[in-house]
Amino acid sequence: MAGNEEDDDVYNNSHRAFLQSFLSRATLTFEEARPILAAIKNAQAQDGRDIQPADITEEDVSTYINVTNAAISPFDLEIRNTLSQHDRTRIYALVNVSSDSITQLATTHTPDEISWVKRCLDAMFETNNSHRSEVLAIKSTEALRLAKAPANQDVEATQGAQAQSLTMMQAQRMLQAMVDEGWFEHSKKDFYTLTPRALMELRGWLVETYNDDEDERIKTCSACKSLITMGERCSDLDCSGRLHHHCKRMAFRAQNNNERCPVCKKDWDNALPVGEKAAVQNRRSTNGGASRRSTTAQTDGADDSQNDSTADEG
Ligand SMILES: [Zn+2]
Ligand SMILES: [Zn+2]
């Protein structure tokens, strides 16, 4: 009786309650998991102890996850965790580990909508992911342009059925649905990228779809080995060295604080951006020296140049 709360390593109603909290949302951060676990433990406790969210450690969470994972693995489900690419927040997600996890979208979306999602992923991981520039994101305008299905489709990829175009309205609704369902995240600069949960869930599919012997389009961080869609890359375009911003310190510490590429050992000072910043950099470098004269022809860079003529009046 006394050891009742020690039964955390046997799957029981408390783990079921924990699993429910994953089913009701796409992901949980450690900070979100703490009050949930505290409430579950309090409901279970028979000695009137009051467990506070602050009492819950990462170890408590991982104990619950290990037991839950053992119970759900026959259903091809697994709770995985990763660090946010923006900061070091730990994120837990219930992931479908079956081989073609993208098919789970089929439970809530039509085949034409899923074809559009795949066109968006092609744009992220092929069109906007070149040797020179790894943007790995799409702008909303681009996502809406992809509403139109291509005329001659790869029959194998569409499983025999030609995908039909979405209307603008449908594409707009799908873009929002992908955010609401936890697949896409939307940046302030209007770029859509895959969420940490989507990267965990689609990892196998992405590697299978976009990597081949000649080209590894899906890259991993040289420090944490997770997929990388935002961060930095080695200045040598042929080098596979990639680091998340928050993994840099760990990587450099491991090589005696030498701020060098973990792969080729070149200076990391001139590292290039991975993610939406690579799109900005790309535009700058293609405009080159002509940008000063051609600002009138451009719509997006026009506002910062206008001050030049009006600023000094002598
Ligand atoms: Zn990393
Ligand atoms: Zn390198």
From TrEMBL:
Gene3D superfamilies for the chain: 3.90.1150.220, Winged helix-like DNA-binding domain superfamily/Winged helix DNA-binding domain, Zinc/RING finger domain, C3HC4 (zinc finger)
Protein name per the record: Non-structural maintenance of chromosomes element 1 homolog
The protein's role, per its UniProt record: Acts in a DNA repair pathway for removal of UV-induced DNA damage that is distinct from classical nucleotide excision repair and in repair of ionizing radiation damage. Functions in homologous recombination repair of DNA double strand breaks and in recovery of stalled replication forks.
Bias (Polar residues): 282-299
Domain of life, per lineage: Eukaryota
PROSITE patterns, sorted: ZF_RING_2
Family: Belongs to the NSE1 family.
Compositional bias ranges of the Acidic residues kind: 301-314
Chain positions covered by the region annotation Disordered: 275-314
Binding partners and assembly: Component of the Smc5-Smc6 complex.
Signal peptide per UniProt: none
Biological classification of the source: Eukaryota, Fungi, Dikarya, Ascomycota, Pezizomycotina
Top EC class, one word: transferase
Keyword list, A-Z: DNA damage, DNA recombination, DNA repair, Metal-binding, Nucleus, Transferase, Ubl conjugation pathway, Zinc, Zinc-finger
Reaction(s) catalysed by this chain's protein: S-ubiquitinyl-[E2 ubiquitin-conjugating enzyme]-L-cysteine + [acceptor protein]-L-lysine = [E2 ubiquitin-conjugating enzyme]-L-cysteine + N(6)-ubiquitinyl-[acceptor protein]-L-lysine
Localisation per UniProt entry: Nucleus
GO cellular component: nucleus; Smc5-Smc6 complex
InterPro entries: Nse1, Nse1_RING_C4HC3-type, WH-like_DNA-bd_sf, Znf_RING, Znf_RING/FYVE/PHD
The enzyme's E.C. designation: 2.3.2.27
